[in-house]
Amino acid sequence: MSTSNTKIPSEDILSTKWDECISNVIVKSGIGLSVGIISSALLFKKRSWPISVSTGLGLGYALSQCEKNFNPTLVPAVAVKAAQEKK
Amino acid sequence: MLSMHRLALAGSSRASLVRSTGQHRVAQRFMSANAGQKLTQAEAQTLPKKKGMRLRTKAFLTLTVLGAGTAGVVYQSMINNDFRDLLENNVPYYAHSLERLEALKDNEDLDKVLKVAHQASGKAVELGKDAYRQASDLINGTTTPAPEKKKEEQSLASSVTEAAAKLTKKIEALDQPSPAKPAARADYVPSETPAPVYLAGAAAGSTPSSSASTPATIEAKKPKAEKKADEPPKPAQPAAKKGEKKDEKKVEEKKVEEKKVEEKKEEVVAAVPKPEVKKVTLVKVETQEPILSNLNATLHQLVAILNETGIPEQGHEIFEKANADLQAMHERLEALKAEGEAQALTVMNDLTERYTKLAGQKDSDHELHLSQVKETLHQEHEKAQKLAIEQELAHQKEALEEQQRQAMIQYAVEMQRRWVREVKVRVENERGGRLARLDHINLRLKMLERQGLVTGEFLEHSARTHQLWCSAKALEKAYEAGERRPFDRELARLKRLAEQDKENELLRAVLASIPEAVAREGVDSVPELADRFQHVADEVRKASLVPDNGGVLAHGMSVVLSKLMFKKQGLVPGNDVEAILARTEFYLQESDLEQAVRELNQLQGWGKRLAKDWIVAARRRVEVGQALDIISTQANLTSLTLA
User: Which stretches are tagged as biased composition: Low complexity (chain B) (predicted)?
Assistant: First the structure.
């Protein structure tokens, strides 16, 4: 995640989150794609499924990170009582 | 659609004669019937002519689907009130049509059911009649069946007719509103409760016999016993009588003579014998001499005794003799008496003459002497009196002189005192006049001084007020500028002015309420805020459909779906995001920033989080504006109170 020195105006919080998310998706899925291509070329006799699999993995990872970015308390199987901690 | 509905209703009513089916079930049946019909029609139409009817089939299918969908929507709106409200709000004339549909449905349903029921009842009656006729024919034709059977059949037929009649009656009853049963007349026996006898004055208060005790006033009367001791007066009147000695001597001598005479007489009497028994009468000698009278009395007594005893004759003579002697003695005594008296008278005259002569001499002598003594005494007295008067006079004179001297001294002292006092008063008056004049001068000096001070103060105050006014105006200019502009210098100037003015606590408090950071940065202007609000509103709208704990997908959906939402304008009621944004925008157009902030502050969740910065900025502006209002009002006030 990118850290910004200047303070983001409150109305731009979601936009920045979206920016981060999109960039994350592009990077992760790109990495997955490249890994899939390389592995399919080198290991799997140029079959197409490793490409889609690794791309999907990258995409999924990026999406989960996005999910955390938008809602940090949304962790599976964990209930966070935010109100009590804050008070 | 309505025809289908009716069809379904008819089908359902044909399927069962039960009238008491609710709307719900009717509607369900209608659905199912519709579906069944649709299927059968589709099959029937698709199976025989597959090629020619393709387009029509398609159209029909789509129509059917659309109709089913519409029906479903209508049905859903009937069940779900929220959904119905939504539709009524959004679809024009929906509420009207739905209302009509409902009214129609209610009425038609009832009518249909009633009609069918009538028909069914008629049929049943006919059937019953037929059966009866057949039964009677059968009985007439054969004439063998037992009467029981006939009876049975008759009873069966009658039961059928009865049932039919009942059914019709029921239907009739249902059709018509059942008349209200006459209220069972319960014999209302008015319970004759005995009228409440109000015992007038049950607790009759026994009249208290007022025993007027007449106090017997016993008046003890005290008798007044007045006792007066009357003292008899004792008149003591000692009487002193002066008898002349010489006369008395003569009388005594005469008496002695008389005594001698009497003694002789007594001797004579004693010697005389007692008179006779016969009455001896004696001549009563009238004398004034007691001795004689005594003698006479004794004589008489003696005579009386002798008379009683009875003396002899010679006694009488003696007694007569004695009596004659006595008579003679008496005569003699009288003569002596007269002689003595004459002698005494002459002696007496002589004596009185001599006495008077002596007395006159003595009186004159005495008087002379007395006058001489008197004179001497008077002279002496006068001399003594004169002396005493002289002495007294001297004494008084001395006293008077003393008194006069004292008075003089006192007067002198008084005079001196008065003089001193007058002098003092004059001196005081003189001094008082001068001092008063000094005081007056002093007072005027003080007045001048005060005036000078007041004027100086006024000038100072005036200068300060002008400075305050100018600073307030400068601050206002910075605040009203079209773009964000720092106003820390203006604020510092105002603060300095407020510090100088000791009385102006309000100004100090107001200035303290503006933070330094805000002054350094300045506040956004209204156009800036309005401009920024457009962006903020877009962002808020995008996030308006995100649930509380929404993830990426929720956000994405919100972004996509928010594009489809209608935008509201103006002062719309409601608590949703669109309404709040619309109202905020309205207030911003009216340049009522305070109200706009209040509206936007109602947002919740992501919307609130997104609008936070804008709200803070706007609130700062509002706060500074309010402070500025107070400052300018204060400046106005001070400039007005200056005069």
Answer: 201-217
Residues of A with Cβ-Cβ distance to B617 under 8 angstroms:
none
Contact A10 B551 (CB under 8 A): no
Q: Residue B200: helix, strand or coil by DSSP?
A: coil
Short-list A72, A59, A82, CA closest to B550: A72
How many domains does chain A contain in total?
1
Give the mutation candidate from A8, A10, A13 for the B interface (greatest B CB count, under 10 A): A10
For the entire predicted model, the pTM comes to: 0.40
- Indicate the pLDDT class of residue B400, thresholds 50, 70 and 90: very high
- Provide CB contacts within 8 A for B83, sequence distance 6+: B76, B77
Give a yes or no: residue A20 inside a domain.
Answer: no
Query: Can you tell me which residue has the tokens 């003698």?
Result: B295
d(CA B385, CA B406) in angstroms, rounded, equals 31
Confidence label for B264 from pLDDT (cuts 50, 70 and 90): low
- Tokens for B183? 């209220």
Neighbours of B196 (CB within 10 A): 6
B34 within 8 A of B55, measured Cβ to Cβ: no
Rounded Cα gap, residues B56 and B66, in angstroms: 15
CA dihedral B327, B332, B334, B338 (to 10 degrees): 170
Contact B321, B272 (CB under 8 A): yes
The residue among B523, B529, B518 whose CA lies nearest residue B484 is: B523
Q: In terms of Cα–Cα distance, which of B495, B490, B511, B497 is closest to B464?
A: B497
Percent of chain B past pLDDT 70, that is, above it, reads 68
Sequence-distant (≥ 6) Cβ neighbours of residue A56 within 8 angstroms: A32
Query: Would you say residue A84 lies in a domain?
Result: no
Residues of chain A neighbouring B557 (CB-CB closer than 8 A): none
Q: How far is CA B631 from CA B458, B471, B486, B514, in A?
A: 21, 10, 18, 12
| Per-residue pLDDT, B100 | 82
Residue environment code for A51-70, b if the CB has 16+ CB neighbours within 10 A, otherwise e: bebbbebbbebbbebbbebb
Q: Which of A40-49, B78-87, B129-138, B222-231 has the lowest average pLDDT? A: B222-231
Contact state of A70 with B614 under an 8 Å Cβ cutoff: no
- Measure the CA–CA gap between B273 and B303, rounded to whole angstroms: 10
Tokens of B592: 């009522």
Indicate whether A86 belongs to any domain.
no
- Tokens representing B575 are 């608590």
Asked if B595 contacts B507 with a C-beta cutoff of 8 angstroms, the reply is no
Can you read off the two tokens belonging to residue B263?
A: 């003694």
* ipTM score assigned to the predicted complex: 0.78
CA B623 to chain centroid, in Å, comes to 51
The tens-digit pLDDT sequence of chain A (87 residues) is 445 557 888 888 888 989 999 999 999 999 999 999 999 989 888 888 999 999 999 999 999 888 888 887 766 666 666 555 443
Contacts of B550 in chain A (CB under 8 A): 70-71
Q: How many angstroms separate the Cα of B49 from the Cα of each of B59, B155, B214, B572?
A: 15, 58, 141, 57
CA B549 from chain centre, in angstroms, equals 67
Which pair of tokens denotes residue B54?
A: 């393709």
pLDDT digits (tens, 9 = 90+) for B132-141: 888 788 877 6
The pair of three-digit structure tokens given for residue B463, joined into one six-digit string: 């200068």
State the Cα–Cα distance between residues B215 and B291, nearest whole angstrom.
Answer: 88
Cα(B456)–Cα(B436) distance, integer angstroms: 30
Quick check: is A15 in a domain? no
The domain of A41 spans 25-71
